[in-house]
């Protein structure tokens, strides 16, 4: 018996990938409704749930209860929280737990957590029996609008982040917006940087809407659901057009080249800088650099900075606590990330708000001069 | 400068998989010609070669020399030989070696070895940077006609063989037929079981040709190349029709259900039974069982047994050294492998030589009775 009443506010985004298409449901109460949503879609009757020590104590019990109500047999594995979990050390027990639960073709693996749990669990699901069904229940704003959509999974290597993994699309994403109420302000803001990013890539109206409605988005309710749905749809559109990142998908990296360099410069110390904060500063820098290259107006860069500052995100390198390495070192990190060919870099630049594009001939020397200016020693 | 002269006997099989299509080259001297073949196909200029302690001492040096001649930068990793290498323990250093060599999008990972090295290396190539280019240089007959074609990669888990892996097609397969001269007679015969299998699946003329020409195939030269090329083409056709094993590809398991049960019953002890020997006995059993089910004539089963015995392969369970567990235990292993639904099993049966088919309603009780008859206690 399906006794799930669709809440008025619930939204559905379809990710269109042929026989790998799937739904993202966005709304309140979706963890409690997970049993119904999964039972109506899954042929099998078994799942393995992987979560972490932060999320598990709060949401594992209601999820397991919801699954049990619909007679879905579930086992769970609780891993340590944090980026270090994205490693072979934790991938191995994740795979063995899935196999131990005898998850087969019609059963599923569930990731309950933020980006780390989603990436690791998706990778495990992607390699057990050469690909098992996979359900994402993202519990951070960042995971709901970014990492849970698009099928990129993986772990880190001593050689760098996300270097080992597979493309493995989920079969269903349940974005329960209630869980966002328990995020810290800082964590919510960091996720918000990616929401704003979708406006800056190619949705100027959405960016303008965010400028007016960001407080409502932060408070929860319909505006928050709307912002998440627009973000998921934006990412879904890009992923549908370029599943394996051969071209267009690179636009999703707006702000990320500078952002990654800053994350590396702060040694991924979340006390100093989290991913979304690096992206916020990076997006402002990308707009300022585009202005410097005479591509975009200075007003647009100012507007981007003003909005991100209004929501409480950092927008300048000197807002990062502690000292940063000199511009030359930041440039090295960018060159490692991006690969310089004949002194030229590929970069996401913009002609204005909502007019981002992939530039593959950006002179490395110009980027270095710009960084020296923004970050004088 | 491309100074590779195509030997008269060299054969090429194309595996048709859309944008994942690739060539299998079959012939003498292909390790020495690897540099030319790879240079003419690869945009990049770097490779990581993974091999094992049996194959490395013999073929790594000529391969590296051939690569160097064409200015392809190569690093190598030598892993222990044997089935135990198909584990996370060895996958991790394989991935790190590939990353350490800075193999990027246009570069490639090379597997130089038998099925174990091919499966492990293909898996590593499949997950480094979410999929790197991959070249197979199979050095056993089994690997040349079976495991190097089709894109199945993976490692073993304590829960079972090949349970963790990905589908990752190679970009090129170089089957150097000279290397087969150094295989032991027993190893060559074991690979030959899979060659005969392609005849038994759906190529009765090929099986008849093998009955006449098997001695020439064992001696080397044109007949051997022909047999390998026909086998690769046969597998390529099945894989092209069913890349991810949703149906037809199951035919490749002819003889494997009984074979796997016997491998498990002998605890994968290669002194008692190697995979190809299990498949040989399994194919004879599959034909005899098909006769018992009134599907095929007894003459066909007799003909299959006679040919495999002629080449020196075991064809009966009582030829396996040491004692086997009772029929009931063998049946348990089959049921674990195949999953019984309502007392019925999926099995590859046959209506005669070259007329195999997937039967999904074989009564488990009939299989058990048959095993009791063939293996009385």
UniProtKB/TrEMBL annotation, chains A, B:
<dbReference type="InterPro" id="IPR030963">
    <property type="entry name" value="DHQ_synth_fam"/>
</dbReference>
<keyword id="KW-0547">Nucleotide-binding</keyword>
<feature type="binding site">
    <location>
        <position position="275"/>
    </location>
    <ligand>
        <name>Zn(2+)</name>
    </ligand>
</feature>
<keyword id="KW-0520">NAD</keyword>
<comment type="pathway">
    <text>Metabolic intermediate biosynthesis; chorismate biosynthesis; chorismate from D-erythrose 4-phosphate and phosphoenolpyruvate: step 2/7.</text>
</comment>
<dbReference type="InterPro" id="IPR016037">
    <property type="entry name" value="DHQ_synth_AroB"/>
</dbReference>
<dbReference type="GO" id="GO:0009423">
    <property type="term" value="P:chorismate biosynthetic process"/>
</dbReference>
<dbReference type="GO" id="GO:0008652">
    <property type="term" value="P:amino acid biosynthetic process"/>
</dbReference>
<feature type="binding site">
    <location>
        <position position="256"/>
    </location>
    <ligand>
        <name>Zn(2+)</name>
    </ligand>
</feature>
<feature type="binding site">
    <location>
        <begin position="115"/>
        <end position="119"/>
    </location>
    <ligand>
        <name>NAD(+)</name>
    </ligand>
</feature>
<dbReference type="InterPro" id="IPR030960">
    <property type="entry name" value="DHQS/DOIS_N"/>
</dbReference>
<feature type="domain" description="3-dehydroquinate synthase N-terminal">
    <location>
        <begin position="77"/>
        <end position="189"/>
    </location>
</feature>
<keyword id="KW-0028">Amino-acid biosynthesis</keyword>
<dbReference type="GO" id="GO:0046872">
    <property type="term" value="F:metal ion binding"/>
</dbReference>
<dbReference type="GO" id="GO:0009073">
    <property type="term" value="P:aromatic amino acid family biosynthetic process"/>
</dbReference>
<keyword id="KW-0963">Cytoplasm</keyword>
<keyword id="KW-0170">Cobalt</keyword>
<feature type="binding site">
    <location>
        <position position="194"/>
    </location>
    <ligand>
        <name>Zn(2+)</name>
    </ligand>
</feature>
<keyword id="KW-0456">Lyase</keyword>
<keyword id="KW-0479">Metal-binding</keyword>
<dbReference type="InterPro" id="IPR056179">
    <property type="entry name" value="DHQS_C"/>
</dbReference>
<dbReference type="InterPro" id="IPR050071">
    <property type="entry name" value="Dehydroquinate_synthase"/>
</dbReference>
<comment type="function">
    <text>Catalyzes the conversion of 3-deoxy-D-arabino-heptulosonate 7-phosphate (DAHP) to dehydroquinate (DHQ).</text>
</comment>
<dbReference type="GO" id="GO:0003856">
    <property type="term" value="F:3-dehydroquinate synthase activity"/>
</dbReference>
<keyword id="KW-0057">Aromatic amino acid biosynthesis</keyword>
<dbReference type="GO" id="GO:0000166">
    <property type="term" value="F:nucleotide binding"/>
</dbReference>
<comment type="similarity">
    <text>Belongs to the sugar phosphate cyclases superfamily. Dehydroquinate synthase family.</text>
</comment>
<feature type="binding site">
    <location>
        <position position="152"/>
    </location>
    <ligand>
        <name>NAD(+)</name>
    </ligand>
</feature>
<dbReference type="GO" id="GO:0005737">
    <property type="term" value="C:cytoplasm"/>
</dbReference>
<feature type="binding site">
    <location>
        <begin position="139"/>
        <end position="140"/>
    </location>
    <ligand>
        <name>NAD(+)</name>
    </ligand>
</feature>
<keyword id="KW-0862">Zinc</keyword>
<dbReference type="Pfam" id="PF01761">
    <property type="entry name" value="DHQ_synthase"/>
</dbReference>
<protein>
    <recommendedName>
        <fullName>3-dehydroquinate synthase</fullName>
        <ecNumber>4.2.3.4</ecNumber>
    </recommendedName>
</protein>
<feature type="domain" description="3-dehydroquinate synthase C-terminal">
    <location>
        <begin position="191"/>
        <end position="340"/>
    </location>
</feature>
<feature type="binding site">
    <location>
        <position position="161"/>
    </location>
    <ligand>
        <name>NAD(+)</name>
    </ligand>
</feature>
<dbReference type="Pfam" id="PF24621">
    <property type="entry name" value="DHQS_C"/>
</dbReference>
